[in-house]
Protein 1
Amino acid sequence: MAQALFLDPEEIGFDGHGLGLYQGGPRCFYVPVKSRAALAGSKVIEPHWSEMIGKLGVEMAYLFTRGGDNPKTAFRSRMYAPTVGIPEDPATGGATAILAAHLLGAENLGPGTHKYELEQGYEMGRPSDLHLEIDVAGEAISAVRVAGSAVRVSQGTIVIR
């Protein structure tokens, strides 16, 4: 896995955050990395990538670390899914929403609403700021909300006859 993402094995994991495999639509592999430098230096390396996703049965890998450019940012992330046509996604709402399942255990979330600011797409020159809210009731997630802004990069019309 470290070879597939051009990481040193020692750069993986931090503060109780370990590797995770979650599904909420497509299956996604969550990879916590220790530093922004490691996150910035990550990239997909073949044939290791194809071997990893084949073994795990996933389409994408979501890498994240603590902090960001904005002092309020909790996590900075990158999402790779090149084998399904997405070399890197600048803003992945679905993967951000599913991150809630990982945070529930890794951050030991108690009852109430937990709010996180996230940065994604900065390393690829398409910065996106995402907002994640997680409602926890008892020991389970009761609701997840993701918000952010988008910039139109294209538009079109499809005519169906």
Protein 2
Amino acid sequence: MSGKNCWEVKNCGREPGGAKASELGVCPAATDKSVNGLNGGKNGGRTCWYIAGTFCGGLVQGSMAQKLSNCMECEFFKQVAREEKADLVESKAVLACMRR
């Protein structure tokens, strides 16, 4: 079962072709194909907490290590965790995909 991606839930408009993409840029979560399909998302849309340089809260976020604790407090992260339950892809699997 596929759930909604972060840009669909947050309505940020920073996906390719989105309402704010030309003004504010495209978010790396929307274009990072290395994690496509994980947690049922398109590109990094349901693993955005692992993607460096996302545009959460109107600001460019840092590396995964810098932002992860904040992301775990995010309602979208909590929503994905609830929806995926035991199938939530863990960090080792995500990092393995990103290294390919």
